Amino acid sequence: MVGCKCLMPIMAIPIALVWFWAAKLMKEPSMPAYNESWWGPGEPRYIDDKIRPFEISVSDEILKDLKYRLEHTLPLQPALKGTKHTYGINTNLLQKVLHFWKNEYNWTEREAYLNQFPQFLVNIQGLDIHFIHVKPKVPKSIKVLPLLILHGWVGSVREMYEIIPKLTTPKQGKNFVFEVIVPSLPGFAFSDGAAKKGMGSFNSSVVMKNLMKRLGFERFYVQGTDWGASIVQAMSVMYPDKVIAMHSNMCIVNMFKGYVTNLIYAFYPTFLLDEEELKSAHMYTQSIDLSVWFYRIEETGYFHLQATKPDSLGVALRDSPIGLAAYLLEKFITLTKASYRGIDDGRLEETYGMTALIDNIMLYWITGSITTSMRIYAEHWSSEFPGNFDVDGISIQVPAGCARFEHDIVFYPKAVLKVKYPNLIHASFYEAGHFPALEVPDVLVDDIFEFFDKVMKL
Questions:
Q1: Which pTM does this prediction carry?
Q2: Of 58, 66, 147, 457, which sits 20 to 30 A from 239 (CA to CA)?
Q3: Active site: which residues (predicted)?
Q4: Catalytic residue among 151, 221, 226, 284
């Protein structure tokens, strides 16, 4: 009995330490300082910030060079029997992609298609930022909501071409419509890449806020996917006086309290799940499912490479169009549905259509932007710029809507989402993958309208 009493003070020490660190980790960080940094080459200087009309026009020289490279592609290494797309894209499929790109894809037609929406360039903080800006033509009785939509990687503004006309057209039963602004993120396609280190989602948020300010929007709505989702989350934390409401089809919870809550649901999937979520309770056990973790390790090699050595990889991808296609298309297979890795055609044609996929690859190729686009991984995860991590750890107070897709990279129950989004007013669930704007555009558009309808009624 005496011995037990003697042990009590000793046991109290580790318990107190655990409690101290848990409390410390649960506490939200302070808002990091940010400024209007100059991201262009050289020292800050005056740049005309006039908004200039822009049209995609690719020189004959670039197109001839592309044709030559495609026609002189070295023999592709035969795939190992039974690997399908588990070692990367299967070269049997890649050979068909090469044939289509060389012989059937018509850039003249596609250039006209890509130019269907009004496009512009404007200099923001030393960078020329490219954006699509579509204003709806509606009577004054219809309210127009300014909506900033941000893409991610391996995507581009091309992801949004199917949803833009649907969002700018009045929907039956709704008294509002959207004025859509879709920029190319810094370093993507026709937007300049930063000339100095630090352009992660934190500083990209400042650029995007200033773009909207330059367009005359002091307050606006945001929607994002992939890196775009990360950026609109950061904007919602940093500028709650600017962002009225946030919708995302990849809501992310990078907070310690969220990790703990997610683990509870993983071990006890029926704990506090609502009736609708109970139907897909298997989704919430992923954080303790070893097969899921092995799959994620297997499929996130690109992430580690781009977060550490984007420039080395960029040299190879910039030099070979079919190499670029192989690298990007493999992500469209894997991130759409894991089981598609085991299907010969990866369901690419059926899900997206080869023309749309080559459109996306062309935006990387003709602008030479693959290296600068991949740098966002290194810049965001660099310990030199802790603002990215600090913003991730701060909850979002503006009204939020999360469209969850079963085969996406991340998937959270509502209770976990509410750790990051305490003002969560909409959380939906659909059967699709990481690129819903391309895969199921009508589903995504309906969800966006449904969320903002709730926002209008607040």
A1: 0.91
A2: 457
A3: 226, 377, 434
A4: 226
